[in-house]
Amino acid sequence: MRLRNKPWASEKLNEYPQYVVAQPEEKKGKWSEEFGNNNPLHIEVGTGKGQFVTEMAKANPDINYIGIELYESVIVSALDRIIEADIPNVKLLNVDAKNLKEYFEKNDVDRVYLNFSDPWPKNRHEKRRLTFESFLKLYEDILVDEGEIHFKTDNQGLFEYSLQSFSHYGLLLNFLSLDLHNSDFEGNIMTEYEEKFSSRGQRIYRSEVKYPKK
């Protein structure tokens, strides 16, 4: 993905502290205080332009959402969506997902969403995939017991790899679809990529897995 430089993005992100958490490490273990309630917390790792996390927050006002995105020039579009939606139960973090433990502690998060993550198809880049075992360990370290990962992609290779990675890690499969948009699954909220790929007739793969009870 070619990123368009937006030199003004950083300044705009700083103008909306009610939506963009500038020092998330200070909120570790205190996210209920940040949101002002004890509702479940769901995070989307790689939120992109924010369509999914914004629509999920609108559809589920009793759940708190955090969209995590590394690139300022991308997350600023997510901020625009949230400003327009004017909803209190969604926040953004402009941080690197590999540092999640700096911002969340065990039991902070109830669910992780991975939507259309970069497939990093070359073998030498395997460790960068968000379903690689080191990331699965990272999610486990911040999720509640029996916490869940919900995963969607259009990339068959990444999907097959991820199912193997989930299995090797010992995760339990709750749901699997090899063609989501031609299934009876209800309540699907699409991402920007999902709309684009599905309009071309590409399959959308989806799985839900959870960590075993300790």
The CATH topology corresponds to Rossmann fold
Strand order of the largest sheet: 3-2-1-4-5-7-6
Task: Classify the oligomer.
Answer: single chain
In the residues, how many domains can be counted?
1
Spatial shape: globular
CATH architecture annotation name? 3-Layer(aba) Sandwich
DSSP helix fraction: 25-40%
Given the helix and strand composition, which structural class is it?
Answer: alpha/beta
CATH class: Alpha Beta
Rg calc: 17 Å
N-to-C span:
39 Å
List the secondary-structure elements in sequence, H or E.
HHEHEHEEHEHEHE
Tell me the strand percentage band: 15-25%
H/I helix tally:
7
- Superfamily at the CATH H level? Vaccinia Virus protein VP39
Mean pLDDT: 95
Enzyme class: transferase
Protein name: tRNA (guanine-N(7)-)-methyltransferase
Family: Belongs to the class I-like SAM-binding methyltransferase superfamily. TrmB family.
Keywords: Methyltransferase, S-adenosyl-L-methionine, Transferase, tRNA processing
Short description:
The protein is of the alpha/beta class.
Structure characteristics:
single chain; 214 residues; alpha/beta; Rossmann fold; 7 strands; 7-stranded mixed beta sheet
What's the helix and strand layout?
Blueprint: H1 9-14, H2 31-35, E1 41-45, H3 51-59, E2 64-68, H4 72-85, E3 90-93, E4 109-115, H5 133-142, E5 143-153, H6 156-169, E6 172-177, H7 192-199, E7 205-210
Parallel strand pairs: 1-2, 1-4, 2-3, 4-5
Antiparallel strand pairs: 5-7, 6-7
